[in-house]
Each structure stands twice: as C-alpha cells, then as structure tokens.
Amino acid sequence: MDLEIKERIRGFITSNFLYGQGGTSLDENASLLAAGAIDSTGVLELVTFLESTFNIRVEDADIVPDNLDSVNRIATYVGRKLSVLSKAVVFDAR
Amino acid sequence: MRVERFLADSAIRYPDRVALVVGGRRFTYANLDAAASRLARALSCRGIDRGDRVVLFLENSAEAVVGLFATLKAGAVFSMVNPTTKADKLTYIVNNCRPKAVLTQERLRSVAQVAIDQAPSVLTSIVVDSTGESTLRGEVSFENASQNQHTDPIAHAGIDIDLAMIIYTSGSTGFPKGVMMTHHNIVAAATSITTYLENTRDDVILSVLPLSFDYGLYQVLMGFMVGGTVVLEKSFAFPYLVLQNLRDERVTGFPLVPTMAALLLQMKDLAPGSFPHLRYLTNTAAALPPAHIQRLQELFPTTRIYSMYGLTECKRCTYLPPEQLNSRPSSVGRAIPNTEVYIVDDRGDRLGAGVVGELVVRGAHVMKGYWEDQLATDRVLRPGRYPWEKVLHTGDLFRMDEEGCFYFVGRKDDIIKSRGEKVSPKEVENVLYALPGVREAAAVGVPDPILGTAIKAIIAPAEGVSLTEREVLGHCKRYLEDFMMPKIVEFRQELPKTATGKIRRSQLQEEALRSTGYESSNG
Asked: Which of B26, B134, B138, B260 has the largest CB neighbor count within 10 A?
C-alpha cells in the first residue's frame, strides 16, 4: 500500500473530521462511522476530496463501507483505482 | 388506546408478518411483541412502574424498538435520546427527567457512564452488545434482562391520557426542553398521518432517521399501527446501500429531509424509474428547493411526493396533497386530518390570506407541555376555543394563500434548522464560550446546498489569544451532537452589541445572509 496515499487520507480525515484531535491515535482499521468521525455529509466531503486529490472517479456503487469506512480501506480502494488507471494508460500507449 | 397496542394488536392479527428489518435481521410481529413483553417484565421486576421514565440512548436497532415498547408495556414513559449526544448534555437530560432506568449500548458506554454516575435516579442500566465488565449502576446486559419467559401483560393500570414519551428538543434558552406526549397525543397524530398517507399493512417503510427524531420514531409507530413492515437503517452515510435495500425490500414509503434529498441527487448513476414499487416519498423539516422537487419527480416518476411541515410539539401541522406539488411547490399545504391550523397577529387575532403571522395549531396531537417547565409551556400553550383546551403557538411565521394553503416564512425566535433538526444558537454559543480564549461568540445560520442551513460560529477571541478554526471545531465536536456542529468559523476583533452590551445576533445573522446573497431566512 502506498504510504503517501495513506498519509494524505489520514491528514484529510484528522483535519476535516477530527479537527486535529486524536490524529496520532486514529486507528487505521477502525470504522470511521462507528467512531463518530464521519457522517452522511462527511462521506460526501470525503468522496469529493478523493476525486479531486487523486484524480479518480468514485462511482456510486463504490461508496460503500468496504471501500470507505477506515483509513486502510480508503487507501486500498484508492490504490486499486490508481493501478487500474495506470494500467489503462499503459494499454493506450501501446 | 395506548401506543403499546400498535405492536400487541398487530402481533395478534399478523403474528407471522415481518414487522422489522434491521441490520440484516428480520423480526415477525410475534417475535418482537414477545421480546418487548419479556423486557417489560424485566423492567417491572426492577421496580419500573407506571409513570417512571426510561431513557433510551441507542442507535437505530431492534433493541431500541423493543426497548420503547417494553417501556410502554411496563406502564412507564420513554425518552429516546440521539446517540450522538455528548456526556454533558446527556447528564443534563437524565437529571432533568430522572429516569429509573437507562438502556444503552456498548459503543456508547463511556458517554452513558458519565451521565449515569451523576444521576442518582438511575437504578438500572441495560446494555446492548455488552462485552466488557459491568461499570454502570445496576448494570445488566440486554440479553440477560430479556431471558425470562414472561410474556403475559403487566397490570400497570395505565390509560391513554397518561404520559407516554418525552422528546427533548433544542430550546431558545440553550437548554433542551422535554416535549410531553400522552398515548392519546401519539395515537391522534399517527391516525391523522396514516390517513393522508393512506398507509396499509402492505406498506414497507424504510427509515434512516434516528428514532430520537420524532419523524424517525413515528415511522416505526405508524408502520406497526397499520401492521406494515419497517426497514430501519442507522444512517444515510452510504446512500447506494440504502437504495439497494429500497429495491430489495420493495419499499413503498421513504421519508426524507431536505439534506437526504440533496445527498440522493448527488448520486451519479441513479436511473429514473428504478423504484416502481415506491408509493410515496415524504419531506418535512424545511421546504425542498423547487429544483430538487423537479429532479425527484424525474427520478421517481411513479411516486407521490408529500411536502409536510411540523414541529415536535405537535408532531405534524400540515401536508400538501401531492397533486398540488407542481402548482404550489413552496407550500407545505393544509392542516393534517382532524386538526386545525390558522395564523394570528401579535394580539392573537386570526389573520386572513396574504398576511404574515404566527401559526397556531389545534388538535388532539398538541403536546401537554414541556417537562417541569411551566414558564416555557405557558408561552406556547395558550387558551383555545373551549375552556378545557390549549392551542399551540408554534413560533413559526407563516402566510396563507386564498385557497387556504400555508407557506413557511421564518421563525419568531432565533432557532436555526439544520439537516432538518432544530438548533438553538444559544446552545452552540454556550459551548463556544466554554472554550478558553473565547471572549464573545455568536452562532448564526447560513444557506448550504446540502444542509439547508449550516451553522456559522462568529468568535472574538480574548486579548492576546489566537484561536484556530480547528481548535474551535475540535472543541465543539466534544460537546455538540453532529447536527449542531458549526461548519464555518469566522474570527473578529469584536462582535456588534446593543447599548446594554448584549451581542446583536440578529445583525450578525442578517450580515451572514447578505454576504451569501440571501436577504431573509427561509428556514
């Protein structure tokens, strides 16, 4: 997993949803929803952040807890999207 | 009729029908009624009696539904508290209504602990999903409490004019007020609403609204009243999954608030006509923007859309018959069945069409008052047509058109509506003042495309102190429920004040609206 991706996601979540509180103790596997860190409008802000920062398109069907409900899950999801994108670029180049 | 009969009667009539679907579990009416009876017995054995209060501090869950009916079956009074409530406010609430028992869940233990430790009235704490050791006063797990096999009714002698529930709502003083509803009030409101929504036992209602919000609570009460099925979700954080459930469960009724409609309309791949079984959508709390109404009609072409208006103090005031939505999109319609609404001037005289005044509500759904707050009660419940009745002065400014349809204009006080829930600026300001370094503070509402109105905090720090937005929001998050959280923080040297030194919040509110291009609040 790309550490830089994870750090940017963690940075966004701590500064936008935890307001700098608990930044170091944020459990990367913990459910953001259950921890009360994020709610329905927060998910929307998160999606907007992911789309603009990583230049990916988050499909409706991707907006599910499996992809977005912890720092690690988000990082894995973004990594997957980016690798699909880079493969597509390689394919185009050939 | 008492409200626990909604469940008990449906369990007799339709024992094997599915009453509740939650978190992948399905409960028949017979299951659920038996579970409520067993828990009622446990409450009764622990000394909870007619008129005693039970606080339910729980997320939307089967246990929350069982808990509320168990409380009523024991003859007691329930108060459902928002699970995002923080320790200080929960402490205030339990000291205000002095419950004998609190039902909560493992995830909320630390918040419940603070409140219960400071509330001597609480003798029993029942914990759902309990994993740790017992730390709460009189603690027992939900599972253990429900283990008895007694499902026969408890002889509590309660009748329908007894108090059934207390719902806390944001008050202009900054402290929540407990709205008192009798069984008779609830039955009257539920009967009226299910009449115009034409609910039947074939209805499947999906709700993501918290049970602490009367709009969410009534989905369960009304669903059970007609013998239908209620699908309960914890939140609308993942709309795609909720819509999948809407399709899979063949849902017929879906209650919205404007924020949910805005989130729904943000979805990229929603195809029109995907939900042919959805009979109706409802919206309340604030009017939907006309553009949203149009897009909802395109996405749900076979669904009736109801615009409605209400406040916790009477549950619901008005609804607009769906066929009139296109001709008067900004109206919230007329009085709900078997109730009366009208507009009065400052002297209490009725006003005709076209004039703005305060909305007054008459009917059996009007609350009995605020719990142990006679002063606040007297301000809103005033003498009515007959010597024995009180009418509700809502504090909402409305106008009526020539055909008798009503339009929301604004609030008489400073209460802000955000995400469909009432926010008292004073309550937010009290929290802001508790942050060291805050000298002056005000909370105002600003238009927001998703929240309807977002909360803006305006702060003048003390001399020589520098505060950051993050510090302010981090502090607020520790004390305020999600829907009360400010979204924007502005710092100033000084806030405008009256000659007597009182902060001019109304001036700040006007400035905030002007800077976003709005001239007046539309709630």
From this structure: B260
Structure tokens at B350: 């009725």
Average pLDDT of B70-89? 96
Task: Give residue B523's pLDDT.
Answer: 34
Q: What is the DSSP letter of B92?
A: H
Shortest Cα–Cα distance, B71 to chain A (Å): 27
CATH class for domain B236-411? alpha beta
| pLDDT of the residue at B66 | 98
Mean pLDDT of chain A: 85
Are A63 and B240 in contact (CB < 8 Å)? yes
Domain ranges of chain B: 4-185, 236-411, 416-515
Looking at the complex, report in whole angstroms how far the Cα of residue B460 sits from the nearest Cα belonging to chain A. Answer: 20
User: If pLDDT is split at 50, 70 and 90, which confidence band does A92 have?
Assistant: low
Kindly state the DSSP code that residue B173 receives in the 8-state scheme: T
* Burial class of residue B491 (count of CB atoms within 10 Å of its CB; 0-12, 13-18, 19+): middle
Q: Which domains does chain A have, with CATH numbers?
A: 3-20+29-93 (1.10.1200.10)
**B4-185 matches B236-411 in fold:** yes
Burial class (CB in 10 A: 0-12, 13-18, 19+), B108: buried
CATH class of B416-515: alpha beta
Q: Which residues make Cβ contacts (< 8 Å) with residue B304, sequence separation at least 6?
A: B279, B280, B281, B322
DSSP calls for B135-152: -STTEEEHHHHTT----S
Neighboring chain A residues of B239 at a CB cutoff of 8 Å: 40, 60, 63
Closest by CA position to B379, among listed B92, B172, B163: B172
Q: Name chain B contacts of A41, Cβ cutoff 8 Å.
A: 259, 263, 419, 450-451
Please tell me which residue, B418 or A64, carries the higher pLDDT value.
Answer: A64
Beta bridge partners of B81: B57
Shortest Cα distance, chain A CAs vs residue B432, angstroms: 15
* R_g of chain A computed on alpha carbons: 14
Q: Does domain B4-185 have CATH number 3.90.1150.200?
A: no
The residue-averaged pLDDT of B294-304 equals: 95
Is B285 a residue whose pLDDT tops 80?
no
In the block, residue with structure tokens 């029993």: B124
Which residues, including other chains, have CB under 8 Å from residue B501's CB and lie 6 or more apart?
A: none
For an interface test with B, which of A18, A19, A73 has the most B Cβ atoms less than 10 Å from its Cβ? A19
Beta-carbon-side half-sphere exposure of residue B424 (alpha carbons within 13 Å): 14
Question: Which of B235, B269, B471 is facing A39, going by the closest CB pair?
Answer: B235
Provide the β-strand partners of residue B340. Answer: B362
Which token pair is A24?
């170091």
- The confidence score (pLDDT) of residue B499 equals 81
CB atoms within 10 A of CB B373: 17
